[in-house]
Amino acid sequence: MNLLRRKSVTDLQAEAEGDHSLKRALGPINLTMLGIGAVIGAGIFVLTGKAAANYAGPAIVYSFVLAGIACAFAGLCYAEFAAMIPVSGSAYTYGYATLGEFVAWIIGWDLILEYLFAASTVAAGWSEYVVSFLQEFGIVIPTVFTSAPYNHVAPPDAGWNMWRLFTEGWVSTGAVLNVPAMIIVTIITILLVIGIKESAHFNNVVVAIKLGVILLFIAVGVAYLNADNWQPFVPPSEGPGKFGWGGVLRAAGVIFFAYIGFDAVSTAAQESKRPQRDMPIGILGSLAICTVLYIAVSLVLTGIVKYDKLNVGAPVAVAIDSLGHGVAWLRPIIKIGAIAGLSSVILVMMLGQPRIFYTMSKDGLLPPFFSRVHPKFRTPWLAQILTGGVAMLLGGLFPIGLLGELVSIGTLLAFVIVCAGVFVLRFTDPDIRRPFRTPVFWLVCPLGVFFCGWLMYGLPRDTWARLLVWMAIGFVLYFSYGRRHSRLAQSSRSDGQTPPVK
Q1: Which among 95, 142, 284, 364 is least surrounded, fewest beta carbons within 10 Å?
Q2: Model confidence band, residue 300 (pLDDT cutoffs 50, 70, 90)
Q3: What is the 3-state secondary structure (H, E, C) of 343-359?
């Protein structure tokens, strides 16, 4: 039963008001821009083309609608939690307050998977756009230094054979390292160590650039639409998860990675000036803006280029290149917007991860190393450097498709737990102060669990296998370190009592 011990929501609210170790510098515009900064990036500039080419065809539009519906339910639940418990732990803290310490550990460990691999995924996409942009000026970087040295295709007949899923299907690409991906992660890490306010200003600038470029792409692309490229809109099925409606579902699970930005907003709650008001604005505002843009861009992209030609790391650049010399002036602009946009995604993903580490460390579930705050910059600098180092290696070594699917399944699991947590807390603590309340919670919360679980179901079997292995590693760490060093457990033992299940 000790695994179910919960942190008091009242204590968490008091902790948020009294803890000034992190600097409160973000307003509603900053938070909304952080959300847009994370959501608009890899989804539009990288994953849209790959998901259309491999899974859904032009029906990728339906995939974005499905993912957006699931996100709407999860976003409403996140908004309630973020306003009620404005601390930096995001879904980890929400799980601690509602479903117990062990569930909190699971979601915290899951968030580590989500943010680390998200930053690495986007860095790989950033690299492809930078290479394409430099080619505009005759600068060619050898491909051995711009690609992952390994690719992986799961054996189709492996079933649930973990050994075969992990050891077979690896192919050497002949590359050495994806050096541009490693460079951008290093630069962003340095910026985030220096300070949250400086990072937010940088993010605001690049988000403004990429929004302008996306709107320009839509405006120009509409004039070049070819309805024949949308036929058939839902390509006939070629097997499980390969086109047809099964492919639409599979694509929705894969591109769900694109929507995790509002989760990243919640990790910055402890650095928000007025979190009770500003967090719901940042979460729901960024989600609404981004869903509309995703649908518009996916329609234009598949209308300009036949979907089977979009299985590349820079599909928007391919679409512009296909339009000929008449819009040659747009090519470098689009690529600059993509580079700026992906930079902001990397920044927000790498901002979120150390703050998860910070909160878990303060709770005793991770070593004190992770919660050390720089005396001048007031950022969790050691956790930030560790996050940057790991993300740099992942982005340099592994292909974008493999990384993106792992992020999607981690994000979906986080959303399932948050939706369940809001539902549970309405019954266990009905009188707690809630500055924002999820409307019709008895319907929204179960639908959030259902839609996110459904999208998880549509992901490939090898992605599930990797999640299970990652969770097994997390269980070992929890029972060998976290459970014994939990501050909640130590507080209960010092009182000479058995830790209660609240």
Answers
A1: 142
A2: very high
A3: HHHHHHHHHHHHHHHHH
Give tens-digit pLDDT for 313-339: 678 878 888 887 777 788 888 888 888
Q: Is residue 121 part of a domain?
A: yes
Lowest mean pLDDT among 76-80, 113-117, 123-127, 489-493: 489-493
148 phi/psi in degrees, rounded to 5: -70, 140
CATH number at 50 reads 1.20.1740.10
Give me the helix-helix angle, 441-457 and 244-255, nearest 10°.
110
Determine how many CB atoms are found less than 10 A away from the CB of residue 17. Answer: 10
CA dihedral 426, 432, 438, 444 (to 10 degrees): -10
Tokens standing for 90?
Answer: 């995001």
Q: Helix %, strand %, coil % for the chain, to 5?
A: 75, 0, 25
CB atoms within 10 A of CB 433: 11
Q: Print the domain residue range for 304.
A: 21-88+116-457
What is the structure's pLDDT at 449? 93
Check residue 161 and give its pLDDT. 67
Report if residue 176 sits inside a domain.
Answer: yes
Q: Based on the structure, what is the number of domains in the chain?
A: 1
Distance (Å, whole) CA 100 – CA 94 = 9
Query: How far apart are the C-alpha atoms of 412 and 427, rounded to whole Å?
Result: 24
If phi > 0 it is left, if psi is from -120 to 50 it is alpha, else beta; for residue 19 that is beta
**Cα 183 from Cα 324, distance rounded (Å):** 32
Q: Shortest CA distance to 31 belongs to which of 438, 351, 374, 414?
A: 351
- On the CB side of 281, how many CA atoms lie within 13 Å of its CA? 15
**124 near 400, Cβ under 8 Å?**
yes
What's the pTM value of the predicted model, to 2 decimals?
0.76
Integer Cα distance of 294 and 6 in angstroms? 38
Residues forming beta bridges with residue 26, ordered by sequence position: 272
Per-residue pLDDT tens over the stretch 62-71: 998 888 888 8
CA distance 477 to 102: 12
Q: How many residues does the chain have?
A: 502
Upstream peptide bond of 232 is cis (omega within 30 degrees of 0): yes
Decide if 109 is inside a domain. no
Rounded to an integer, the average pLDDT of 364-385 is: 87
End-to-end CA distance of the chain: 11
